[in-house]
Amino acid sequence: MFFKVLIVLLFIAVTIYIGFYARKHSRDVDGFVLGGRKVGPWLSAFAYGTTYFSAVVFVGYAGQFGWKYGMSVVWVGLGNAFIGSLLVWYVLGARTRAMTHHLRAQTMPEFFGARFSSPALRIAAAAIIFIFLIPYTASVYNGLSRLFDMAFGVPYEWCIIAMAVLTCIYVVLGGYMATAINDVVQGCVMLLGIVAVIVVVLAGYGGFTQAVVTLSQVPSDAPGMTEMQGAYVSIFGPDLFNLLGVLVLTSMGTWGMPQMVQKFYAIKSFDAIKRGAIISTLFAVVIAGGCYFLGGFARLAADSIEYRSGGVPVYDSIIPTMLKGMPDSLMGLLVVLVLSASISTLSALVMTSSSTLTLDFLKGKFKMDTKRQVLSIRLLIVVFVIVSVVIALIQYNSPITFIAQLMAISWGALAGSFLGPFLYGLYWQRTTTASVWACFIFAVTLVCVSMVLNYTETVKMNLINVGALAMLAGLVIVPVVSWLTPRPDAEKTSTLFKESYLNLHDSEIDAD
Questions:
Q1: What is the pTM of this model?
Q2: 161: number of Cβ within 10 Å
Q3: What is the pLDDT, as a whole number, of residue 416?
Q4: Which string of b and e fits 176-211 if b means at least 16 CB within 10 Å?
Q5: Does domain 2-500 have CATH number 1.20.1730.10?
Q6: What residue ranges do the domains of the chain occupy?
Q7: b/e for 107-118, b at 16 or more Cβ within 10 A?
Q8: What is the pLDDT of residue 200?
Q9: How far is it, in rounded angstroms, from Cα 189 to Cα 287?
Q10: Strand, coil or helix: 39
Q11: Residues of the chain whose pLDDT is less than 50?
């Protein structure tokens, strides 16, 4: 216990120190929200990666989908690395940096409002972000708190409160730069921790070869596949269709999640984007690939995990169960690993929500100078953390308790609303305001209706697949509605694209 507590206290001390150190970068809005748009490739890449992967992936997704799909779940990790990291950096990175810089947009709603000359669109986007980031935040609290309960015996409620206080302190102090610097420290801990954990866990099952042999003897319980032998070590697993749903949700979601895309607003140059893409991808291969690889052996813990009535596993208990019995020093590293991943994600979420509400709603309603805007963002960070803590506590005893389902609700609504409009808005001048509205309405309605049907048990729907459908549908809705509605001002959009991308291939950009 001494080693575990010491490692966690050291991590907390470093995190708070970085918050104080980064205060000098957070004196104005651009500095507090985007680090002055001067963030280098290493900070940007680690900020992206640590925001992407949290306790949601390590505890929730790795456990649940490792149980359902076995070793084939590694495809999801590879999809996260090459679709959710490498491809998105190359497709969105440079154009996002260029157009948001030209439009002076600091948030995703600001981008929509300026790109489509629609204040109403800006307010709608801000509302969607503020509402649907809450279930994602609750899922992060859920994952980390389960691990803390296992490692220290600390009640769930106290874990949530402690993590919320720590997040508030360093984000309120140092803003975006504090989160970016912390992300590098936290990312290094994550890289070291995931490798050590995999080695120790597999050793406990007799080594990699023996673990695979044992897993191959587990009979499939997937519908229609109950007679399949070696299902959980096969290349595509027992349920390829639903596996693809997970891959699409977790890999394509980053293309439309505001806290992910906003990393491209802050990066200082196009050269930095190219280098950041490689760093981010390598980070994702290790972290996402490692998490899902470990989760692929979930069935080996079948005799030890918790079950609900009817024999349904408590999926979020699988990974913590697999980790029981580890040496105290390694357990301390593991806790810091998941704490690092979760804190970095939470900081990005609260920063996105508070800055969106201030810059896209309050600033337009009240006269606010720079100091008042920064103060408002800081106060709203505290408010958002409090609200998400309350939701997390309520959610803990609700019917929707699995981390994966909470994340699916959030990512489905947010990325479903924003992915198509944002992508086409960067590349296609013909994109219309009506098509963006259509995408917003479709995604939010689809996710909300599915959630209500599930909650009332009227119709059981796979929320993972619903979220994936919302994202893919947006890629069709935007061009179809754009062709069916009046073309935007051709001269205005042409000038916007020309001026935004005039220096697209220059190595540096004026950050002022």
A1: 0.83
A2: 17
A3: 94
A4: bbbbbbbbbbbbebbbebbebbbebbbebbeeeeeb
A5: yes
A6: 2-500
A7: bbbbbbbbbbeb
A8: 82
A9: 11
A10: strand
A11: 507-512
